[in-house]
Q: What sequence folds into this?
């Protein structure tokens, strides 16, 4: 594998406390999208924090409950709402890879998040086996969007990320060549100038490399204290 080693990755701040994350989701109406009561989010995060070991974890809503198309406009950067590119109208059909195990629950936690800056200029086809070899799990598109929702600073010019845990499978069973990513719009082309600097949900080809896109991943997913699932 031939890749270009980027500069030392930026050290990102830890995720907010889980109870604060719950309030952010409630404030943005994510619980209503997911068909959950605000009290359910609060009770889940309070129990997780009381159990310990949740420091730095990210609260996520199962993608079946809160799809990417509903989360995108809830992301904000410099006062501009997020959006999905016009040629990705099938964004909600991008599903978890068969190799990923998602908790069978409406709410769960992701631990050990990395933006994957060191893998910038790798292709998705190169990055997935490398992450697997490190016992890491690539983020789903919706998980990456939850991360940006809770920590807008995770999106930075020239330091954005792909979410290759989500892929679209064709009718014949083969994977669609598009791989989803979250980055910052330049306000050019079909994006429109009014969307410059807004969070952008788009895609890249699985075999292509981009110097400004890392590969977001986590140690695992869990609902309650115990070993994470990948």
A:
């Amino acid at each position: 594998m031939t890749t270009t080693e980027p500069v030392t990755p930026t050290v990102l701040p830890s995720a907010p406390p889980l109870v604060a994350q719950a309030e952010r989701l409630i404030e943005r109406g994510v619980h209503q999208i997911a068909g959950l009561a605000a009290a359910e989010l609060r009770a889940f995060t309070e129990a997780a924090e009381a159990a310990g070991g949740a420091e730095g974890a990210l609260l996520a809503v199962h993608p079946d409950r809160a799809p990417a198309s509903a989360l995108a406009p809830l992301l904000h950067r410099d006062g501009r709402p997020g959006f999905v590119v016009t040629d990705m109208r099938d964004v909600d059909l991008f599903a978890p890879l068969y190799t990923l195990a998602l908790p069978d629950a409406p709410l769960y936690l992701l631990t050990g998040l990395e933006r994957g800056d060191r893998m910038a200029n790798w292709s998705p086809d190169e990055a997935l086996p490398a992450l697997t070899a490190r016992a890491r799990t690539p983020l789903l598109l919706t998980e990456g969007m939850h991360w940006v929702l809770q920590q807008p600073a995770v999106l930075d010019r020239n330091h954005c990320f792909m979410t290759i845990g989500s892929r679209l499978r064709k009718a014949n069973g083969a994977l669609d060549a598009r791989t989803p990513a979250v980055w910052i719009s330049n306000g050019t082309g079909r994006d429109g100038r009014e969307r410059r600097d807004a969070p952008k949900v788009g895609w890249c080809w699985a075999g292509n490399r981009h110097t400004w896109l890392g590969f977001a991943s986590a140690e695992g997913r869990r609902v309650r204290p115990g070993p994470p699932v990948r």
Q: What stands out?
A: Residues 38-51 form the longest helix (14 residues). The chain has six helices and 14 strands. The CA atoms of residues 188 and 196 lie 8 Å apart.
